[in-house]
Every structure is written in C-alpha cells, then in structure tokens.
Amino acid sequence: MTRRKVVGIDLGTTFCAVAHIDAYGKPQIIPNSESERITPSVILFDGASVIVGTLAKNNSVAEAERIVDFVKR
C-alpha cells in the first residue's frame, strides 16, 4: 500500500508555518529557508520582485508603503 504524504499549512495573522507527518505519524514543522520554524506573515513588493517573511518584516518601517501585513484583520 502506498503511503500518502500529509502537509499542514498555518496561514496565521502574524506568522505562518508548514508541517508534515513523519514516518512515525508525528507532526514535524518544516523549517523555512532561514532555518526558522515560523515565518512572519509579511510581504514586501519591491519593484518587480516580492520579498516575504523575515526580510520583509525587517524592512517594514523603511518601506511601509510597500508592505502588506496583518492580512486577516
């Protein structure tokens, strides 16, 4: 029997996270590209590119007019 992969995505107001079910049936959070377990729910529109997460949050004061955050509110 083929085992299916299960992934859960939490799109929170301030942070997002992704998890999967490991070989033992336990949920495990998948680290982001910065090895963090959670990612800030922030988007920075910088010209032709889109920056998300910690880098976007760190630039949120200087680039306030280009930031999208607290989307669920």
Description:
- With 73 residues, this protein is mainly beta.
- It has a single domain (7-69), classed as 2-Layer Sandwich (Nucleotidyltransferase, domain 5), CATH 3.30.420.
- 7% of the residues lie in helices and 40% in strands.
- The strands form two sheets. Strands 1, 2, 3 and 4 form a four-stranded antiparallel beta sheet that branches. A three-stranded antiparallel beta sheet has the order 6-5-7.
- Strand 2 (15-21) and strand 3 form a beta hairpin.
- It is elongated and about 50 Å long.
Quick description:
This protein is mainly beta and 73 residues long.
Shape: elongated
User: Helix and strand string, N-terminal first?
Assistant: EEEEEEHE
Query: Under the CATH scheme, which architecture would be assigned?
Result: 2-Layer Sandwich
* CATH-defined superfamily: ATPase, nucleotide binding domain
Can you count the beta strands? 7
Terminus-to-terminus distance:
44 Å
Secondary structure tally, helices: 1
Rounded to the nearest angstrom, the radius of gyration is 15 Å
Largest sheet descriptor: 4 strands, antiparallel
> Per CATH, what is the topology?
Nucleotidyltransferase, domain 5
Low-pLDDT segments, ≥5 res: none
Mean pLDDT: 90
Give keywords.
mainly beta; Nucleotidyltransferase, domain 5; 4-stranded antiparallel sheet; 7 strands; elongated
Topology of this structure?
Blueprint: E1 7-11, E2 15-21, E3 27-29, E4 39-40, E5 42-46, E6 49-52, H1 54-58, E7 67-69
Antiparallel strand pairs: 1-2, 2-3, 2-4, 5-6, 5-7
